[in-house]
C-alpha cells in the first residue's frame, strides 16, 4: 500500500486516520499515493485560517501581499520539473498539456503579483468617485472595498490541479483572505505537492494557505457568514453547494463554474479556401486534443454554413488523424489519457448518448494506442455530426468531458445564434471571420449567453491566446448552466474577496480614507 499524502491544516501537517483513497496512473494503472481527511478536526482548521492566517494577511498592504505572490512564483519555478513528472503520472498528460496547467498557473500568479504591486501601500480599495450628499460639499459619500474577515474555501475539479488552485488563490491572497483548498481526489497529488513546497519555503504566514485531500464531507458545514466558497465541477454538485444552509441562510458568497457546451462559429461568408475556415479547423482539432478534451472551455459544438459541412468534417478529421494517442512518456505521443477509469467510463457513456442523435464523422479509436493498451484510460478523439441540428435535443444538452465534439450546419446566422444559445449559457464561444463588422455583430449577439467571446481573424492568427486558454486579464465564467460565476478579469477578481461599503461623512474623514486607499484601475 502506498503512503498517505499529508494535509496541511490548522497550521500543521496531518495525516488521515483511515487507509485512504488511492490515486492511480491512468495509463499504467499503478497506484501512486493515497489521500484521506478522516479524523481531522475541520472546525479547528477553519478557525485557525480565519483567526491566524486572515489576521496576518490583513495586517499587510497590497504591495506586500503582491511580493509574496512573486515569491510563490519563484518556489514553483524551482520545482517545475517535479510538477511535470507528477502530472505525467497522475493526470496522464503529455508535456505540452502539463504546461497548460503548470506554466499557466505560474503565469497567472506572476500577473497578479504585478497587478498587486501597482496598488502599493494601500490598505483598502476606493470604489468610484466621491459623491456629494448635500448642497454643502462638506458631506459626501465614498464607496470603499475592504477584505472580508473570513476564509476562502476552494473545491476544485480534477482537470487543472495546478492552475485551478492558483488562479483562485492569487486574487484571494492578494486581497488578504486565507485559502483552504480541497482538490479533486483523482489528481490531488500535484495540488498537495505545490502547497507543500510553498509551506516549506515559509513564503506565507501560517494559516494563509491550507490543503485538505480526500472527502469533502463536512467542509461546507464549517462556513460562516463572512467566508466565501468557490466550486469548479459538475452542475449537479454545484446545485448541492448552492442549496447548503451556509449559502441559503448565512448568505456565504458563492462562485460556481459548472458544465459548459462551448461553441465555435464560422462566419456565413467563409469558403473552404478562406483563412477563417482554416483557422476554425486548426482550433477545433487543438481544442479536442489538448488535455484529452478535459477542459471546461473546450469546443463541444461546431457551427458552420451548411455548404461547408462536408468539407469541415473532412478537414477536421484529417488533422485529428495526425494525433497519436497513448502513453505520454513516449515522445511520439501527442495526446495522453483521461485522468481515470471513472472518467473514461463517463466519456464513453456520454458518447453513446450523443450517438443517438449524431453520426460518427471521425473516430480515432480505430488506430492502435502507442505504448498503452485498451485497459488504460486512453480515449482517442471522436468527431460527431448531424445534418439536422435544429431538431436535436441531446446534442444541445449533454456535455461529454473528453475528446469529443459535434459538427452542425446552419442555414442562417440567426439559426446559428439560436442553436448556440440552446447551450443555456457557456464559458466561451469563438467566432471565425475575416469581416470585422460581422465579428462585432456576432460578439454583441453572443455576449449575453457567454462569459467570453473569442474572435479569431487572419490578422490575429499568430497572436490570439486560443479558444480554450483562460487568461488572467479576461473574465472566466459564464451564465446559466455554466454556473453564473465570475473569476479573473484582472483586478475585478478581487471583488469576490472584498466587501463594499458606503462611507457617508465629512469630506475631511474621506480625505483620510483616500490617503489609505488605491483606486481600482478597471
From TrEMBL:
Q: Which GO terms describe its molecular function?
A: oxidoreductase activity, acting on the aldehyde or oxo group of donors, NAD or NADP as acceptor
Record-annotated Aldehyde dehydrogenase domain positions? 16-456
What residues form the membrane-spanning segments? none
Matching entries from InterPro entries are given as: Ald_DH/histidinol_DH (IPR016161), Ald_DH_C (IPR016163), Ald_DH_N (IPR016162), Aldehyde_DH_dom (IPR015590)
Source organism, top-level taxon: Bacteria
**Keyword tags:** Oxidoreductase
Q: Which Pfam families match?
A: Aldedh
Gene3D superfamilies the record matches = Aldehyde Dehydrogenase, Chain A, domain 1, Aldehyde Dehydrogenase, Chain A, domain 2
NCBIfam families according to UniProt:
PRK11903.1 (NF008868)
Protein name, entry field: 3,4-dehydroadipyl-CoA semialdehyde dehydrogenase
- Organism per entry: Limnohabitans radicicola
Amino acid at each position: 500500500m502506498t503512503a498517505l499524502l499529508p494535509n496541511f491544516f490548522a497550521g500543521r501537517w496531518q495525516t488521515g486516520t483511515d487507509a485512504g483513497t488511492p490515486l492511480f496512473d491512468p495509463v499504467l494503472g499503478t497506484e501512486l499515493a493515497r489521500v484521506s481527511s478522516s479524523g481531522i478536526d475541520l472546525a479547528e482548521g477553519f478557525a485557525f485560517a480565519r483567526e491566524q492566517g486572515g489576521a496576518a494577511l490583513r495586517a499587510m498592504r497590497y504591495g506586500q501581499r503582491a511580493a509574496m505572490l512573486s515569491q510563490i512564483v519563484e518556489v514553483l519555478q524551482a520545482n517545475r520539473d517535479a510538477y511535470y513528472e507528477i502530472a505525467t503520472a497522475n493526470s496522464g498528460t503529455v508535456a505540452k498539456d502539463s504546461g497548460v496547467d503548470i506554466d499557466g498557473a505560474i503565469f497567472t500568479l506572476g500577473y497578479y503579483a504585478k497587478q498587486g504591486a501597482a496598488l502599493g501601500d494601500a490598505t483598502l480599495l476606493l470604489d468610484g468617485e466621491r459623491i456629494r450628499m448635500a448642497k454643502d460639499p462638506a458631506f459626501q459619500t465614498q464607496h470603499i472595498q475592504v477584505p472580508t474577515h473570513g476564509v476562502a474555501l476552494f473545491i476544485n475539479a480534477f482537470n487543472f490541479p495546478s492552475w485551478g488552485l492558483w488562479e483562485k488563490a492569487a486574487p484571494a491572497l492578494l486581497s488578504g483572505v486565507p485559502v483552504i483548498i480541497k482538490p479533486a481526489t483523482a489528481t490531488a497529488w500535484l495540488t498537495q505537492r505545490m502547497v507543500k513546497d510553498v509551506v516549506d519555503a515559509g513564503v506565507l504566514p501560517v494559516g494563509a494557505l491550507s490543503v485538505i485531500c480526500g472527502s469533502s464531507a463536512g467542509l461546507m458545514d464549517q462556513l460562516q457568514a463572512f467566508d466565501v466558497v468557490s466550486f469548479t465541477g459538475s452542475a449537479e454538485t454545484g446545485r448541492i453547494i448552492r442549496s447548503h444552509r451556509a449559502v441559503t441562510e448565512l448568505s456565504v458568497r458563492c462562485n460556481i463554474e459548472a458544465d459548459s457546451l462551448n461553441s465555435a462559429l464560422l462566419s456565413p461568408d467563409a469558403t473552404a479556401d478562406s483563412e477563417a475556415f482554416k483557422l476554425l479547423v486548426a482550433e477545433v482539432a487543438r481544442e479536442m486534443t489538448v488535455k484529452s478534451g478535459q477542459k471546461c472551455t473546450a469546443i463541444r459544438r461546431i457551427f458552420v454554413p451548411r455548404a461547408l459541412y462536408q468539407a469541415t468534417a473532412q478537414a477536421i478529421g484529417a488533422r485529428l488523424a495526425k494525433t497519436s494517442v497513448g502513453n505520454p512518456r513516449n515522445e511520439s505521443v501527442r495526446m495522453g489519457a483521461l485522468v481515470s477509469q471513472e472518467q473514461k467510463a463517463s466519456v464513453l457513456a456520454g458518447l453513446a448518448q450523443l450517438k443517438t442523435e449524431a453520426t460518427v464523422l471521425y473516430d480515432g479509436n480505430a488506430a492502435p494506442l502507442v505504448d498503452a493498451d485498451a485497459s488504460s484510460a486512453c480515449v482517442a478523439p471522436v468527431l460527431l455530426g448531424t445534418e439536422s441540428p435544429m431538431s436535436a435535443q441531446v446534442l444541445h444538452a449533454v456535455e461529454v468531458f473528453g475528446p469529443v465534439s459535434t459538427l452542425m450546419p446552419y442555414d442562417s446566422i440567426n439559426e446559428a445564434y439560436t442553436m448556440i444559445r440552446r447551450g443555456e449559457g457557456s464559458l466561451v464561444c469563438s467566432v471565425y471571420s475575416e469581416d470585422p463588422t460581422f465579428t462585432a455583430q456576432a460578439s454583441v449577439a453572443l455576449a449575453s449567453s457567454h462569459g467570453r467571446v473569442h474572435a479569431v481573424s487572419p490578422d490575429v492568427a499568430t497572436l490570439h491566446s486560443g479558444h480554450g486558454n483562460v487568461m488572467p486579464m479576461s473574465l472566466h465564467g459564464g451564465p446559466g448552466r455554466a454556473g453564473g460565476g465570475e473569476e479573473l478579469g484582472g483586478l475585478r477578481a478581487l471583488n469576490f474577496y472584498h466587501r463594499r461599503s458606503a462611507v457617508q461623512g465629512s469630506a475631511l474623514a474621506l480625505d483620510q480614507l483616500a490617503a489609505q486607499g488605491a483606486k481600482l484601475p478597471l
